[in-house]
Amino acid sequence: MIELRGITRVYGRGEAEVRALDGIDLTIRAGEFVAIMGPSGSGKSTAMNVIGCLDSPTAGEYLFNGVDVARLDKDQRALIRRHYLGFVFQGYNLLPRTPALENVELPLIYKGVGAAERRARALAALEQVGLANRGHHDPSELSGGQQQRVAIARALAGSPEVLLADEPTGNLDTHRSAEIMELLARLRAETGLTIVMVTHEEDMAAYADRLIWMVDGRIADDRPTQRGARDAG
C-alpha cells in the first residue's frame, strides 16, 4: 500500500541545511500496524508528514497504492488525504462547545456527504469507539481518553484506508493510554485498517506488530514486535 524509495527531505541550504530524511526505503502492507520510534530529530515526524501527504520529499519516490505521490501537486495530494487517509494527533483538535457527534461529522461536510448519511456515519463511528451514548456531550464534558476516542471516530467516519496517528497517547495517563492502544489494535483486527503510528513510548509501540526505529533521518532498525512475531507464528 505504501512504498518509500530513497526518500530524502532537506530543509534549508548551505550551513543551515538539515537532512530530516536521508534516503529512506520503507514498505507498509495493507492491514499492518506499524510504530515509528526514534529520538528527537530522528525524522519520524517528517516521515509521517510525507506519508500523510502533508509534506513533499526533496527526492525519491512515494507510491501510495501504486500512485507516485511525489509527483502530485498540492490539490491532488489534498484529495488523497481527504479520501484515503485519517489523522489522529496528540492534541485532540476538537471544536470546543460543539457536541462530539458534530465534531465527528465535520470532515464529512468537506467531502460533500449529505446530512442524513453524515449523521449515520458519525453515529456508527462513535459506536465503534464505544461512545455511542456521548454524542451530545461537548469536549469539556469528556475525559482526555474520551476526547481522543472522538478524534479517532472523526478519522474513522471518513472510511480511510490508512490511519496516521502522531503520538496519540501523548496527553494521556497510563491507564487511558492503554485503552486507546487496545482500541486501535481492535479496530485494526476487526476492519483490516492500516495504522501507522509515531510514538516515543516503547510500551505503546508494543501494541503494533512492527517497529521502525529511526536515527538521523535514516531507518536504523525494522523488526516485528513481540506481538507481531506471535501473530506471524
TrEMBL record:
Where is the ABC transporter domain positioned along the sequence? 2-232
Does the UniProt entry include the keyword Nucleotide-binding? yes
UniProt-listed CDD domains = ABC_MJ0796_LolCDE_FtsE
**A single GO CC term, please?**
membrane protein complex
Q: Which domain of life is it from?
A: Bacteria
Keyword annotations for this protein, in alphabetical order, are: ATP-binding, Cell inner membrane, Cell membrane, Membrane, Nucleotide-binding, Transport
Q: Which InterPro entries match?
A: AAA+_ATPase, ABC_transporter-like_ATP-bd, ABC_transporter-like_CS, ABC_transpr_LolD-like, MacB-like_ATP-bd, P-loop_NTPase
Q: Which GO terms describe its molecular function?
A: ATP binding; ATP hydrolysis activity; transmembrane transporter activity
What is the similarity comment for this entry? Belongs to the ABC transporter superfamily. Macrolide exporter (TC 3.A.1.122) family.
* PANTHER family listed in its UniProt record: ABC TRANSPORTER ABCH.1, IMPORT ATP-BINDING PROTEIN
What name has this protein been given in UniProt?
ABC transporter ATP-binding protein
What species is this protein from?
A: Antarcticimicrobium sediminis
